[in-house]
Amino acid sequence: MISLSDWNIIIAWIVYSILGLLSLYLFRLNRLLQKTPDEVRKCSCSRWTPELLAKTYQEISENPIDYTSQLPPKMDRRYIVTGGSGLVGGFIVLQLLARGNSPESIRILDIRKTERNDMITGPATEVDFVQTDITSAASVEAAFAKPWNPSVANLPLTVFHTAAVIIASDRSAYFYGFPEAVNVKGTRNVLAAARQAGADIFSYTSSASICVRPVETFVPPWAKFPRHIWQMLDEQDFSRPLRSREDFFGNYPYSKAVAERLVCAENDELFRTGCVRPANGVYGNPSDNTVGTPLSKDIFPTWVPHIVQSFVHGANVAIAHLHHEAALVKKDSPQAGRPFVVTDPNPPITYDDLYSAISTLSIHPFRLIVLPPVIMLLISYCIEWYSILPHKFPLLKNILPEIRGEAKHLKPGLFSITTHLIGSDANARKPVEQGGLGYSGVLTTLQGMTLEILEWNREHAAGQGGKTRKTYTTSVSLADRIQELASVGISSQSVDLGVQTSRMWS
């Protein structure tokens, strides 16, 4: 007969064995998450050395990049740019002006005025701005109905719809209402107002994240890699039925996929529509998340330095939209009613290349802390579980404190968007005669990221001796602010979300 003490020993042995096996499994999983598949490594470019970065920085500093000559020819049209204060929309406005379109022929519809340095001086300041909440049909209709300058009032109308909210980490149905309101309902409102206003061209900024499958992280111990650890960003999914929300890595890509289908379904002879899908990680201004966020930090924790991705500069996305417009202007355009992925004109880089660029070129100190990905993954599940509790059990809303700041976005969805993602813009690069856009990026990732750091350095050297960093309203922080206002019943249109609060010194 087994004594009580023997049973205690057996139970302790079982518990320790389970914990040991679990530790070994997590150690193995951590190693898998830190590896780069050979297929991905072969696709990537050579690493950025300090010498290459310093040389590129000096070249751009002494000979600024002027790609005006590479813009599609000016067309005599009117332009409405939703989200024109932001990253992609702002570059569209600047490029329209650079190629000769008058400020009177352009109108920005946005929730806030711009904080971009390149738009608060020069001709961009003469462009009409209408504060607009795209979730409100009345607000959108009023913005479109505003009279135009008589000199352009009779010109045909193009709409570039770039406005959206980007919260990549949320995947629970409890949090879908917000991106649905802006990205789906907002797009529907803009489409309706554009038709009512007589627009004949509608170019929508979609997202290549639509085709990203959720990464299946917890795989058997003998698996070589987690499933979907690397993926291609292309347009093949568009020819298939729309997946269910649960088959997307988060609410954001699903809302963009639904909106993309809405836009393309509206295409007809009198109202030609289509979409541009920027590859993962749009950058180009300190207000972006990709480069601007780490630039703003002294110490930057990360678990993705080895991750290989295709990035795209906002200027490249904008020029793709102008090529898109030029293709849609032609009747019976095969480019209409479909999406096109666009990337920078170079092989993908690693996040470590980006971090090397910042540590080498920024006038501010920058130190990287590399964290074990499996630890961050486990924490992300805890944060997601905690954030869902008040929605499942409403009585907890007044008891549990809300997680705030950047930590609230550490959820499992991030591990699907921060995996190896290789963009293919082969269709966009095809000549227009072959059904493509004739697109070619004007900035490589090396040039684009170096240029952003150069502009950051110049802006900070001009104020406070470069000793402190400015804070910017990123797409994520703006979405958080709008969501907070909506939760307490305050319209974001009635609150100043512009430069007064977002450009204070930190």
Automatic annotation (TrEMBL):
GO terms for biological process: ergosterol biosynthetic process. It holds the Pfam family 3Beta_HSD. It comes from the Eukaryota. The keyword Transmembrane helix applies. Residues 80-358 form the 3-beta hydroxysteroid dehydrogenase/isomerase domain. Keywords: Membrane, Oxidoreductase, Transmembrane, Transmembrane helix. One of its GO terms (molecular function) is 3-beta-hydroxysteroid dehydrogenase [NAD(P)+]/C4-decarboxylase activity. The chain crosses the membrane at residues 6-27, 79-98. GO terms for cellular component: endoplasmic reticulum. The keyword Chloroplast does not apply. InterPro entries: 3Beta_OHSteriod_DH/Estase, NAD(P)-bd_dom_sf, NAD(P)_dehydrat-like. PANTHER family: HYDROXYSTEROID DEHYDROGENASE_ISOMERASE FAMILY PROTEIN, PUTATIVE (AFU_ORTHOLOGUE AFUA_1G06450)-RELATED, NAD DEPENDENT EPIMERASE/DEHYDRATASE. Belongs to the NAD(P)-dependent epimerase/dehydratase family. Dihydroflavonol-4-reductase subfamily. This is 3-beta hydroxysteroid dehydrogenase/isomerase domain-containing protein.
